[in-house]
Design brief:
By secondary structure, the protein is mainly α. It contains eight helices and no strands. Helix 3 packs antiparallel against helix 4 and helix 3 runs parallel beside helix 6. It starts with 8 loop residues before the first helix and ends in a 10-residue tail after the last helix. InterPro entries: AhpD-like (IPR029032), AhpD_core (IPR004675), CMD-like (IPR003779).
Length: 153
């Protein structure tokens, strides 16, 4: 495993952490199920190859009652029966918003419309901001080669 390139930037720039914490607090305050937010965080982190976020996200979800079946299946959510229609819509939105360069219409109307069937405008706003925040975490960690902790005991 390669060594981190630098200390995590969040540790070096504490004012940035305050802004990130405000995003976290706001996106988690609108009433979206915490499990939905955890699933989209985990899926975006898997796509981006962010070891610390996949590790921490799966552990946090498990601690908050998520089942092994669902956690093990997030990467193949389309092929498993473990997720609600609303969760599937959120996961599809998370994938599209994370893979912006993969297609000309990065977030197709069908994906947005499906999400809008399950979430109101405030919830959609929080979901979009949470996906973007997750991608921020992922990009910081991957760019600087941050590692998942090895002392979880």
């Amino acid at each position: 495993m390669p060594e981190p390139r630098i200390t995590n930037p969040a540790a070096l720039l504490p004012e940035a952490v305050k802004a990130i914490n405000l995003l976290y607090k706001e996106t988690h305050s609108v009433g979206l199920p915490a499990s939905t937010l955890e699933l989209v965080h985990l899926r975006a982190s898997q796509i981006n190859g962010c070891g610390p976020c996949v590790d921490a996200g799966a552990r946090a979800a498990k601690k908050n009652g998520e089942t092994d079946d669902r956690l093990f299946a997030v990467a193949v959510w389309r092929e498993t029966p473990y997720f609600t229609d609303a969760e599937r819509a959120a996961l599809a939105l998370s994938e599209a918003a994370t893979r912006l360069a993969d297609q000309a219409d990065a977030v197709p109307d069908e994906i947005w419309a499906e999400a809008a069937k399950h979430f109101d405008e405030r919830e959609l706003s929080a979901l979009v901001l949470w996906i973007a925040t997750t991608n921020l975490f992922n990009r910081i960690n991957v760019t600087t080669r941050q590692q998942a902790p090895q002392n979880w005991g």
